[in-house]
Amino acid sequence: METKYRVGYIDEDVKQVKKYQRRFRKYDIEIIGYEFVQGMTLDELMLQVYESDIDLLMIDYKLNETNQVTFNGEAVESDFYDKKPLFPHIIFTNKVEQAEPHVEDWKIIFDKDDIFSENDEDDKKVEHFITTLVKSIEQYRNHINKKKTIVSNLLEKGEREGLTASEKDLLITKQDELIALDKTEKNEIPKHLLTEKKMDDLSKTKKEAEEFLQSLFDKRKK
């Protein structure tokens, strides 16, 4: 059966990644791990993350226990939040007491030992946790799709009959909002597509703009 969601999990311990790959599989969630090598930088790790096709990111807090890296989960979360501010992500760790002083938003911290007990993996806490992740993913997808729909509809109207001044402003505004959602280099939107100068010539830019919208936040076919 094809998994419904892909969740990135940043943990330097390969055994931990494999453990949660097994535990999440029953909920149709595929856990994606990342490679840690001695002395790797935060930028090198984040490049892997930003190039991965995921729906949500889980971050272990204590990443420097094996001395492979010199940073912990709060550095990862800070970089990720700066680049993809609304993309669903959590701190998933058994070092909650260590994470809390360094993570600004406590709501994103989840205690893995509290959620997945060794004796009972099917309790209500697990189900609630999975539901929380799924709802976060779907909320983000809906947020993006609403903006993309507005842009697509305005592009079609502009090609068909032109846009009013307020509609032109709305089109540029929604484009800028989509840009702000993902500041990673691979998803940088070519802003020339929908600038004011091109508003009166949408028929020539519509195809290019639509192709980019199709690739924006690229998802696997569900």
Number of strands: 5
User: Segments where pLDDT lies below 50 for 5+ residues?
Assistant: none
**How many angstroms does the end-to-end distance come to?**
12 Å
Instruction: Domain count, please report it.
Output: 2
Second-tier CATH architecture of the largest domain:
3-Layer(aba) Sandwich
Order of helices and strands: EHEHEHEHEHHHH
Query: Could you say what the CATH topology of the largest domain is called?
Result: Rossmann fold
Count of DSSP-assigned helices: 8
State the strand order across the main sheet.
Answer: 2-1-3-4-5
What is the CATH C-level name of the largest domain?
Alpha Beta
The CATH homologous superfamily of the largest domain is named: Response regulator
Structural class: alpha/beta
Q: Tell me, briefly, the overall form.
A: elongated
Strand content: 5-15%
What can be said about the biggest beta sheet? 5 strands, parallel
